[in-house]
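Hypothesis: this fold can be encoded by more than one sequence.
Test: take the structure tokens below, design a sequence, compare later.
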């Protein structure tokens, strides 16, 4: 990761590019699915070892897009425009977290289900859930580390409405985890990123209404990016693509004082 941005825009922002973003997102999801297929059989130990060693080895992206589940259209529109306007590849975080329930079901059916009683073991389910969330969290951290640019879409869907102005609370554990990682992961130069193939982004799962947990989120280390500034980036990047387009964004938006 080189730079991180907090994007605040309206719901219809870049909506005309949604179909382009959706095609990119579906491609990434297929790559993740192909990767998961290699881990569906065998013991739980082998599953974890292989996943942590080989997770998403072939997905390449320069921009990681973090967003709330209800902001999927926004994320796809952004990904579509980044590709169409700047020639940039994005990874939307839902390509990772979207498989959380599927992966849990595979493990639970294999290791937690009691055929005699027709029920699942509560203790084993707790253990399988902790393993899956740990593995996916590690995978996302690696993807964030590999991406040069991180864009967090900040709307009332991701930051709770009454705290939206201050931007200090979220109901999503996935958003909390991703934002925390952008602060903790060591920053690398843009030259370092461009010397190798890069990657990633994710959608957050909906919050369980039976359990509401609010996480403190610190966004001070992310540079502020609004729709007007994004439009200026598009204008100033005319004729530029890929890394040079990102350089224009970095020059246009000064780093956060603590970035």
């Amino acid at each position: 990761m080189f730079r991180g941005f907090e994007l605040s825009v309206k719901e219809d922002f870049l909506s005309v590019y949604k179909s382009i973003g959706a095609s990119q997102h579906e491609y990434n999801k297929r790559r993740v699915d192909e990767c998961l297929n290699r881990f569906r059989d065998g013991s739980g130990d082998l599953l974890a070892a292989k996943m942590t060693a080989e997770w998403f080895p072939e997905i390449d992206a320069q921009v990681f897009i973090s967003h709330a589940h209800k902001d999927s259209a926004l994320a796809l529109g952004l990904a579509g425009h980044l590709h169409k306007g700047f020639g940039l590849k994005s990874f939307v975080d839902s390509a990772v977290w979207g498989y959380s329930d599927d992966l849990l079901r595979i493990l639970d059916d294999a290791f937690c289900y009691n055929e005699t009683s027709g029920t699942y073991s509560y203790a084993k389910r707790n253990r399988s859930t902790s393993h899956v969330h740990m593995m996916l969290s590690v995978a996302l951290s690696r993807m964030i580390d590999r991406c040069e640019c991180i864009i967090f879409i900040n709307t009332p869907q991701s930051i709770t409405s009454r705290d939206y102005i201050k931007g200090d609370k979220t109901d999503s554990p996935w958003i909390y985890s991703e934002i925390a990682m952008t602060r903790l992961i060591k920053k690398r130069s843009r030259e370092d990123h461009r010397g190798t193939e890069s990657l990633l982004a994710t959608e957050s799962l909906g919050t369980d209404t039976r359990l509401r947990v609010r996480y403190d989120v610190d966004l001070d280390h992310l540079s502020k990016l609004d729709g007007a500034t994004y439009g200026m980036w598009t204008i100033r990047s005319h004729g530029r693509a890929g890394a040079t387009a990102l350089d224009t964004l970095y020059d246009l938006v000064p780093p956060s004082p603590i970035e």
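Residues 122-146 form the longest helix (25 residues). The two ends are 12 Å apart (CA to CA).
Hypothesis status: open.
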